[in-house]
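Entry 14. Two folds queued back to back today. First construct below, sequence then structure tokens.
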Amino acid sequence: MTSIKNAPRTATTIKVRSKPEYMISRSRDPYHELMLRLFKDETTAMRGRRFLGIVEERMREGNPLRTNEWESLIRELGISRSAFYAMRNKLLGAGLISIRGGEYRLSGAFSKDLVDMARWWWTAVLGNSLENL
């Protein structure tokens, strides 16, 4: 049996909305809207946002959040160890965070993947020129 701590970091699912009124950039709170597309329920979305906020704040302070600080994190977020690692693994799988040198860091992998998908769809499927994107 795999322990939670050693669970694989897999890809994740994101909800895509096709109507213009659901565009993240039109939302009053784009960050929250993004979390709702990753997590099934509101409570987990809020915790995911809070966790990302902690990672971002600690990076800015020059004191990155260490992976071995998980116990204080679960107390601060008010969740179980398994819920924390499930949330963390979803954020890792989505490419919003990464772990380097035992530290959590915000990651640009999510953005790069979306840009790559947009370019592929625009050129390969729609047959448009990349210059017109």
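Second construct, same run, same settings:
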Amino acid sequence: MRRRSPQEKKRLNYAKDRRNAYGENDKSSRKNIRRNKRAPHRANRHRVNQVLEAAVGAVDEGAEEEVERRLLTKRPKSWEKSPDAPLGEIVQYTLRRRMTLGTGDPGRDAARLERVRRRTRQPAD
């Protein structure tokens, strides 16, 4: 395995490292992702059980078709995790925002932004 130069490591960090850009506490994701995956599954199971309880009893072909129709008419609930943003994008956003708000040194922030763009090999705006 070949050694990577510090510049190459930095470029890979900007491209591959991810940061939570959703706007909530990144530590809460440990619980919230599990909770958000769990809730739709639970709701789907609950709905199926309610529909199937209506069909309990003697076998009736009409009731069987009605239950199947009711189960297939409503799409099951689902949840999908939104991916975290690459570190390079987060750093560029932070520097641009700092320049827009005027909270930092504009010259230094512009130089930093240009340096990050060069490292991530992105064209200037």
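Quick look at the second one. Helices lie at 6-16, 29-53, 61-73, 87-101, 106-120. The first helix runs from residue 6 to 16.
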